[in-house]
Amino acid sequence: MQRVLIIGGNGSGKTTMARKLAEITGLPLCHLDSLYWTDGWKPREREEFLALLQAELERPSWILDGNMKSSLNKRLDYCDTVIYLDFSGIRCFFGAIKRVIQNRGKSRADMGGNCVERFDRRTWRFIFGTLKFNKIHRGLFYQAVAARPNVRLIVLKNRGQVKRFLQSIQKEQALKKTEQ
């Protein structure tokens, strides 16, 4: 597990899990949002975004969280492990609301540029989009991963499974240290 892609519905906790996994494993962490967004929620030019993404993908190891369907196949071509947070739409809906409330008026560290969280039309589209995410994207995500038999797929369906998975990785890391 050297190149880990974390995908899942918006509000599922991809960024939080990515941070925790990076702390446990020591793998470098990159947030797809930090490559894509610039100040004021403006997307980078496509070519610039793809160049930044390519530079990250070519590194020997990483954890990369984010969805962005347009670059999914490129990211899958480089990863060895996919962690799919396949949570229910309602769980993601409440996760997205919680995130906006906790970060309202601030720009999150995992974002590129100065992207202040606020409740506006864009935010509400984002939040309500969480309810349709699985219907629109789940099949595509599973199909894209299945087309790569060398990629290990780990599906986690709820926060309890995420917690147990992270604990198991932490135990593995501790065991490796004692063996050295």
Keywords:
Rossmann fold, 8 helices, 7 strands, 53% helix, globular
Helices and strands, with pairings:
Elements: E1 3-8, H1 14-25, E2 29-31, H2 32-36, E3 37-38, E4 42-43, H3 46-57, E5 62-65, H4 72-78, E6 81-85, H5 89-103, H6 121-129, H7 133-146, E7 152-156, H8 159-179
Parallel strand pairs: 1-5, 1-6, 2-5, 6-7
Antiparallel strand pairs: 3-4
Helix pairs in contact: 1-8, 5-6
The CATH topology corresponds to Rossmann fold
Categorize the overall geometry: globular
**What are the secondary-structure elements, in order, as H or E?**
EHEHEEHEHEHHHEH
Q: What about the largest sheet? A: 5 strands, parallel
Q: Helical segment tally?
A: 8
Protein structure class: alpha/beta
Residue stretches low in confidence (pLDDT < 50, at least 5 long) are none
CATH class: Alpha Beta
Q: Mean of residue pLDDT?
A: 92
Q: If you compute it from the alpha carbons, what radius of gyration comes out, rounded to the nearest whole angstrom?
A: 16 Å
Distance between the termini: 19 Å
As for the number of domains, it is: 1
Strand order of the largest sheet: 2-5-1-6-7
